[in-house]
Specification:
606 residues; alpha+beta; 8-stranded mixed β-sheet; 30 strands; globular; binds zinc ion
């Protein structure tokens, strides 16, 4: 446990039983934002008022402000290179006020995604401060997680100055946003007004207010109907759009969206995207439905199915894994270039392979739970969100296409690269701070390795107990900021077992998956099979025994077999039959050196 985390446990903001500690706190803010986007003008203008509440016992003097879009500034720290079309002059702060008083804002070429500001009067514990900003930026020609999709389609994300997370273990989050390491956000209340020209539809996070003032009568009828049916409703088709009879014909319409206790807001707008919508029951107890929408260019063939895929994701995730009703009122998948999640939104590419479009939509929508429902520090502990989205993606894939195909895709896409690789970076522990890592080792830790760690625990505990632990972790930490130790401690607490032998093995080690079937010997009762654990990970494995009579038998070993003997185990096969061969099959837990996983005794079988 790192020293800053130890200190949090000592201050009782975290508790060894895995619950939030009795002194747990987190800060909160209310954002009121106006944003004006008038394509094809690339200039986006914003004004906001933030009421920030200090729930900590510390006095705040220098809050840190996140300006994520400054990643577009020339010279900004970034994981990788970029092209001129991605570059802009970043976020220009035109006005900064504290409690209504004008203040200077340091806005020079060396300010990137973090900007410290000084409060004229320190913010005492349990007091609040009002920060106001006016700003503008040019939307980038090349879009990443946000930007211009085409000249009249914009995706707006991370578009407002926000107060960074100030927390109990790390203080101010001053980690640079360098692209791959993603975000860390408090749960805030948002009231956002998007000012967009007529004939532009705006999709986004939160409740759309007064749609009757924005949408023409027939469109409104279809939109309203979509909240009550499992059928796909074409709220706006290519033909409607061409006829320009979708929105109210004011020069500029104001689309107001609100959402409370949510980590972020994102929006897409277009004058030519089609709009599909449907809905599905996500909570059987209350009968609550959630809306699933798609916004896309009609030429994208796969996108005609995306509203259906989104509804399926909401349904499946709510009823199976994690088995917690989808916590929001809707989701919208917007056609862009990102493969990225936002609360109630995804920005996904179009693909020729429609089953891949489904796969990506499912992954991004699975992120609803981690990081958004759970308030994960994605920058430092991305395995706590990407690892889960990857786990859910695999489990929903099993339901969609059967285990065999899902296994194949998962192995190819999430496992093979690191499981068969030998480079030292892919052997760094999963809990290594993500912000201190780059490259393939970083990616492996966040996605495939972490997902297999969670799935190996599922194999160890069985589905029922695993789900009980997972749901209890999610109930305890929903709307808060859990750390890896809160997760591990909750599982230990709920199972009543000390599972640290497993957590240490998967999450804190340099291990990899490599078993060696070293010996198969005749014994008095049958055969003695020796398996050496060369790589160190405690991964589930099947032992497949083929008998001389042509029959086979499979013995499944859960990670528990390694608890007491981590290096080598002896397995007894009680049989009167002759064994022809014994083989290890890890399935998705791919072995680093599969050549030593089989012993062939031949027809004679001793
Ligand atoms: Zn993801």
């Amino acid at each position: 446990m790192p020293r800053d985390v130890q200190a949090a446990f000592n201050k009782l903001t975290r508790s060894p039983d895995g619950k939030p500690g009795k002194n747990y706190w987190q800060n909160h803010a209310r954002y009121s934002i106006d944003i004006t986007a008038l394509p094809p003008d690339r200039n986006i203008k914003g004004t906001e008022s933030i009421t920030y509440f200090n729930n900590s016992s510390d006095t705040i003097k220098n809050p840190n402000i996140k300006l994520f879009l400054n990643i577009h500034k020339p010279g900004a720290p970034r994981d990788g290179g970029t092209v001129p079309d991605y570059l802009t002059s970043g976020m220009q702060i035109d006005k900064f006020e504290v409690n209504g008083e004008k203040r200077n804002f340091r806005d020079d070429p060396y300010v990137f995604t973090n900007a410290g500001v000084r409060l004229p009067k320190p913010l005492a514990p349990h007091d609040s401060v009002r920060l106001s900003f006016d700003w503008h930026y040019q939307i980038s020609l090349q879009s990443g997680r946000e930007g211009m999709i085409d000249s009249t389609t914009y995706f707006l994300a991370y578009f407002y100055p926000r107060v960074a997370v100030f927390d109990d273990y790390n203080g101010w989050d001053r980690m640079d946003f360098v692209d791959s390491h993603e975000f860390y956000s408090d749960f805030n209340d948002y009231d956002v007004r998007i000012h967009a020209p007529k004939n532009y539809i705006v999709w986004g996070t939160g409740t759309l207010h007064q749609p009757e003032t924005l949408l023409q009568r027939d469109v409104l009828k279809r939109y309203t109907a979509s909240f009550k049916t499992n059928e796909i409703i074409h709220v706006a088709t290519k033909e409607n759009i061409a006829a320009k009879n979708i929105t109210t014909q004011n020069a500029v319409n104001t689309w107001r969206f609100t959402a409370n206790d949510i980590p972020d807001m994102a929006f897409g707008l277009s004058d030519h995207f089609a709009w599909d919508a449907t809905s599905v029951v996500v909570d059987d107890k209350t009968g609550r439905r959630a809306s699933a929408q798609a916004a896309y260019n009609d030429t994208a063939a796969d996108y005609h199915y995306v509203a259906k895929f989104a509804a399926h994701s909401l349904d499946w995730l709510s009823h199976n894994w994690p088995g917690i009703p989808y916590p929001y009122e809707k989701t919208t998948v917007f056609q862009g270039y990102a493969g990225m999640e936002y609360p109630m939104m995804a920005n996904d590419e179009t693909y020729a392979d429609t089953s891949f479009s489904r796969f990506v939509a499912e992954h991004e929508i699975a992120h609803t739970y981690m990081p958004f429902y759970m308030g994960i520090n994605e920058t430092r502990y991305g395995f706590m969100d990407e690892g889960w989205a990857t786990t859910f993606e695999y489990l929903i894939g099993n339901a969609d296409m059967g285990k065999e195909k899902a296994d194949e895709l998962f192995k190819q896409f999430r496992v093979e690269g690191w499981a068969t690789g030998t480079s030292s970076d892919i052997q760094t522990p999963i809990t290594a701070p993500g912000d201190a890592m780059t490259g393939f080792g970083f990616g492996s830790n966040e996605y495939g390795k972490a997902a297999l760690g969670y799935l190996a625990m599922k194999d160890l505990l069985g589905d029922q107990l695993f789900k009980k632990c997972l749901q209890e972790y999610m109930n305890r930490w929903h709307g808060k900021h859990p750390l890896p130790w809160d997760f591990f401690n909750t599982f230990n607490n709920v199972t009543g077992k000390n599972l640290n032998w497993f957590w240490n093995n998967w999450f804190f080690s340099n291990n990899y998956i490599d078993y060696n079937l070293s010996e198969v010997k005749k014994s008095s009762t049958g055969y003695a099979v020796t398996i050496r654990n060369t790589g160190g990970f405690f991964a589930p494995v099947d032992v497949v025994i083929t008998y001389a009579d042509g029959t086979t038998e499979t013995k499944h070993l859960t990670p528990s077999v390694w608890e007491k003997q981590p290096k080598q185990i002896a397995l007894t096969v009680v049989t009167k039959k002759k064994v022809e061969s014994v083989k290890l099959d890890g399935g998705i837990y791919m072995d680093g050196t599969p050549v030593d996983n089989e012993v062939k005794l031949g027809k004679k079988g001793f």
